[in-house]
User: What shape does this take?
Amino acid sequence: MAYYVNFNYQAPNSFNRSLVYGRLCTLFKVNNPGKYSQALSEVCGGKLANVVVENPEVARDLLKHGHMQGRVTFIPRVGIHAKRIDKNTLEYFK
Assistant: This one.
């Protein structure tokens, strides 16, 4: 699982590194890992290794000039939309 955490790239000239947030799995914390990590892994699968960037242009620049090793899937932050879970559903799964 260590490959999930590391995301190495060579920044293109005049590239703003703050526009690359990192691997999805590093952007949140699981309160009770022993209880929820396996479920999270089953639901999200390989998507936890996706890299979150500010916008599609950042992803394009990295793909063209980032000198990354291996395959990388980018998620533009501007395309992420949260969905609310209603109280009844939340209570059911507690």
In short: The beta strands are 20-23, 51-53, 74-76.
